[in-house]
Design goal:
- Helix 2 crosses helix 9 and helix 6 packs antiparallel against helix 7.
- This protein is of the alpha+beta class and 321 residues long.
- The chain is 57% helix and 15% strand.
- Strand 2 and strand 3 form a beta hairpin.
- The longest helix has 71 residues.
- The protein starts with a helix and ends with a helix.
Length: 321
Amino acid sequence: MSSLLRLPALSLGAKFGAALALAFALVAGGGMSLFTGVTNELRAPGGTDSATGGSGGTGSAVNPGVFPSKDANGGSTSGDRVDLVQTGYFALEVDDLDARLAAISSAIEAKGGYVSSSARYGDASNPSLNVTFRIPATAFTAATTTVRGEGTVVQEEISSYEVTMQLVDLEARLKNLRASESALIKLMAKATRIADVLSVQSELSRVRGDIESYDAQRAALADQVAMATISVQLTLPASPLDTASKDFNLVKEIQSALANLVAVGRSAIVLVINLVVVALPIVLIGALLGGLLGRAITPLVATVRSLLAGGGAKRRGRARR
């Protein structure tokens, strides 16, 4: 039985041909990817792709303010006027929520601001306070400095954007509409027919409606410019255990491990299939060609050796004489 399973011995030429064919296939096919055919799809714990990395913790994200646009001469497109809406967000870790809230509120009120809204979340073991302040725009920078000093800053976002053109446009529209309103009032006073009076009154109602709408928009935008907004979230410091177990999900970890197992198993199966389907024929063809080449070269090598041996014998005979 063992003699039936014994593989035939390969000549040196066949072995060389098989190795050369396999090496050529690896180079032409891009290395081992020719046989694996599978890219690395292992997932990092937590369900995030190891190639891109998981999302980190909360960090500081400070957005630069929007500066007024400039014209060709370097000046503002609206002259020297610049209207900015400024907002700020702070997430702070503090030792005492109520004490820190009272201190921040007092500092904001001293600068002419007030509490716009507040909300309390969580239970006694993990409380959280969210407070929104309105502060005069001129005191915005000083207020943000005060807030930073009341705890450990976990996250900070500062932003500002220019609304000069919107306000200028609204004010121009209002000016034109008020001029139209005055003209319509004068025209109504001169109207004598009922039809003319009704027509002017209808147009006057439309103009006054537009005035009220644009004026409300202008007032709301002007209020945002005059009074900046600062939102503050206050929380107690997280315990080391909570920090270590943050974002841990046992089900996701198991699913990630199973996904890695499936990816490794699939790669192994694909490797075996490609070795059988791709590598084996290449090796057989290389061995066949190498064997044929070896058979063709062997007589030539023997002839060369015999000629060299005959020449050497003649030289030795002459030397003896």
